[in-house]
C-alpha cells in the first residue's frame, strides 16, 4: 500500500493530528510525506516519512510518556 498523493497525505495528516489531540492529549502539527508498506513472506516492511511541529513542552511530555 502506498499513500503518496498530496490529497490523501493531507487527510491522513489531519486524522493523525486529531487522534493525537483527542486520545493522547498532544497538540502538534503533522505533515505526512510518504507512507508505504510491503508484505513479503509473512513479514511486513513499513516506510514512514513524517514531519511534526510541536512545542518543547509537548516534546518533553511525549518523551516522558515513552520512557525517555
Topology:
Elements: E1 2-3, H1 6-24, E2 29-40, E3 43-53, H2 56-65
Counted beta strands: 3
Mean pLDDT: 90
Helix amount? 40-55%
Largest sheet, if any?
3 strands, antiparallel
Explain what the structure shows:
Helix content is 43%, strand content 37%. It has 68 residues and is of the alpha+beta class. It has a three-stranded antiparallel beta sheet. The chain has two helices and three strands. A hairpin with a 2-residue loop joins strand 2 and strand 3.
Summarize the structure.
The protein has helices at residues 6-24, 56-65, and strands spanning 2-3, 29-40, 43-53.
Brief descriptors of the model:
alpha+beta, three-stranded antiparallel β-sheet, 2 helices, 68 residues, single chain
